[in-house]
Give the backbone structure.
Amino acid sequence: EAQVTQNPRYLITVTGKKLTVTCSQNMNHEYMSWYRQDPGLGLRQIYYSMNVEVTDKGDVPEGYKVSRKEKRNFPLILESPSPNQTSLYFCASSLRVSNQPQHFGDGTRLSIL
Amino acid sequence: GENVEQHPSTLSVQEGDSAVIKCTYSDSASNYFPWYKQELGKRPQLIIDIRSNVGEKKDQRIAVTLNKTAKHFSLHITETQPEDSAVYFCAAHKNWMYSGGGADGLTFGKGTHLIIQP
């Protein structure tokens, strides 16, 4: 089954404790992206990747890092999480470019205390 | 960069009636406009999309119209049913090649909570 898989689905942690949210897709998609969703703000792009070893900042990249060492994986790294990063995070992928249908993962709800 | 405004934020309609959600965008270079439906606690799912070379697209009870001159696009749902209740997001594709650089991806509206009254 074609899918985008995120882990963990839920995480409660404390300020400053490094964490990684993994994202994996099995559709051989080139384009992958991370979004955060906050009430009343919609989805905002954090980082994106157009292919292996090609990543770039989205609209709200501060406090986040990403890597794209393999085509299928695009982890989101919070080196020193802070409470303002408490949010619902979605990973998405599309075949080649961002102006094609994007497939979203099931989301990761992060709470930073 | 791109800015997408979506209205209304909440829309309540009687079952069987039509619902219309409107979005405006700022970047005239945007060329792709998808609509996503998000049910409570679930991921956004694409329901329909339209490209800038097309003025209207229809898929059963759902249609999208695009006015490039005015830079607005709308989602139309006819014969609404209880399962249409959800949050709907419009988005516009930022074409980084023609927008002087910057991020490549979708800019989303803030969402419309559609409530279908029985």
Notes: Chain A touches chain B at residues 33, 35, 40-45, 48, 50, 56-59, 90, 97-102, 104-107 (CB under 8 Å). The mean pLDDT of chain A is 95. The longest strand of chain A covers residues 42-51.
